[in-house]
Amino acid sequence: MGAVTDRIEPSGGVMSDSRVDLSFLLTALRKLWWVVVLAAVLGAAGTFGYASLQTPLYTATSSLHFSIAQSDSATDLNQGSNYTQSQMLSYAQLVEGSLVLQPVIDELNLEATPRGLSSSISVSIPQDTSTMEITVTSADPERAADLASAISEQLIEVLDEAGSKTADGSPSVTVTIYDDAVPPRSQSSPDRSRDTLLGGVAGGVIGVALALLVALLDTRVRNEEILVEAGGDPVLGVVSKAPLLQSRALAVAQEPLSPTAEDFHRIRSALTYANVSSRVRVLLVTAGMPGEGKSTVSVNLAMTLAGLRHSVLLIDADLRRPRVHVHVGIDGSVGLTNVMLEQVTLEVATHSVSGTTLDVLPSGEIPPNPAEMLTSHRMEELIAAVSGKYDYVIIDTPPTLSVADANLLAPLTDGVLLVVDATKTRRAALAQSMKTLEMGGARILGTVLNRARPVRGRDRYYAEK
């Protein structure tokens, strides 16, 4: 026992991140769809609320056409049209100047200055045309139309008075209002429908970005594929979440035909092929951090092995926070430590589970020096003795990253089973656990992914009769 050959090397590097591909993106969005929906709803609601608080604005437009007053031939008409187009920018500047706006202010009795009024006016000139559109924005639709009309009329007056003249003294450029401004029926801004839609789209995009960011930053070993990539190969089994396991019960004994029992049957079968060169008789079960379910896996795996009528001894070697006796429902006050101190015999400290071939050796009293006790010559003799008496010996030990107990005890066993919690174990912790065990001379047989997401439809299949 305890040979340090044929170690399992993490394939691909324990710290290699999974490749971000379409499958990764779709998985992230499927798991965090509510983030996208919430962000979209908040974005839509926020923009709608902001738009509702804004003062409604209305726009009215007056359209003008500019032409040469007289033309004797097609050539004169063409030259006149070119001249008019070349002057359109100059006419546009007049619209926003005081020469046009001040009379409008006086006419409509506005409390404004030409500079202030010009900020609500926009002038557009369609390309290669002699037309102009004067648009006025105001909180009052009637005022918007009145301003647009008054500005257009005043521009015509200015050009009539100050513009170039023909030989007979009439204006050389004729300006006609061909589309007079009318009070708008609906506001131009804010557009609540458009803004709400854009806010929802923007929020959704932000939600997608957040979902992907969370997925990228989440280094938990969520499924078997990630476990293999993170260096947990070979994976000997996957144990799905189940209410019985959460209640610290013997799930495989209470519901032998349940999906949970089937999970442990697969682990039992995988152990058979974990090392074809020699049979695994003494198995150490540990985890990286507390609370990953190592004791749950130890107890149910031991019961599963006993289900084939193998003689199995489950030893609670977690002399710091023992839990095996709680799962099995026995008194744990007398056990391993008492046997080590030769206070009682192994037969007296061992409890037999009724109706099975499983024996349980609880931890006993918690000693002040657990590590020294587990590495003592007495512990080595005990393991050698029980390995010759039982078909299988399962040893539950403390987490590897918390204390060194598992590392010290691992060389005395045939192999180590590392439990990985799909809901909390990080890749870095998994890598460190495996490195720590291997540096201590452990032979890692494989990993078990605990508390994994149940496969869809599996419970329904098992429920059918």
UniProtKB/TrEMBL annotation:
Principal subcellular localization: membrane
InterPro entries the UniProt entry points to: AAA_dom, Bact_polysacc_biosynth/exp, LPS_length_determ_N, P-loop_NTPase, Wzc-like_C
Membrane topology annotation: Multi-pass membrane protein
EC number from the UniProt entry: 2.7.10.2
Residue ranges occupied by any AAA domain in the UniProt entry: 291-436
Assigned keywords, A-Z: ATP-binding, Cell inner membrane, Cell membrane, Kinase, Membrane, Nucleotide-binding, Transferase, Transmembrane, Transmembrane helix, Tyrosine-protein kinase
Family as reported in the entry's similarity comment: Belongs to the CpsC/CapA family.
Source species: Brachybacterium fresconis
Domain Polysaccharide chain length determinant N-terminal: 19-108
Protein name: non-specific protein-tyrosine kinase
Signal peptide: none
